[in-house]
């Protein structure tokens, strides 16, 4: 069995400004990031679709100890996409020291990406999702 949307294709889509996911033909739900089956019902009958690339912040935290390739502090958030799946990434364009003073929950964001090149023990570059307030 082959993946309909590989991580490589998902990452390449992000680099081109597209957020790709899988839409289930049985239940209609979206799966992001890619998996072999629908994350909602387990069906293998899915198709690759482009998502809107926007959503709402559901929760966030400020991290001072961060993975290789990142500079602390980071604002890490869970965002519910307009299509339903939740994705994790970094909020950009906000001073982390000021983020705790702001009400970021349910704020609308545009989803983007950042290429991380300074990642030891990897097979090259990495990619992380980014969010900017709209």
How would you describe the overall organization of this protein?
This protein is mostly beta strands. The chain folds into two domains: 45 residues, no CATH class; 80 residues, OB fold (Dihydrolipoamide Acetyltransferase, E2P) (Beta Barrel). 10% of the residues lie in helices and 41% in strands. The protein has two helices and eight strands, in the order αββββββαββ. The strands form two sheets. A five-stranded mixed barrel has the order 4-5-6-8-7. A hairpin with a 4-residue loop joins strand 5 and strand 6. The longest helix is centred in the N-terminal third of the chain and has 9 residues. The radius of gyration is 16 Å and the shape is globular. It starts with 6 loop residues before the first helix and ends with a strand.
What brief labels describe this structure?
134 residues; mainly beta; OB fold (Dihydrolipoamide Acetyltransferase, E2P); 2 helices
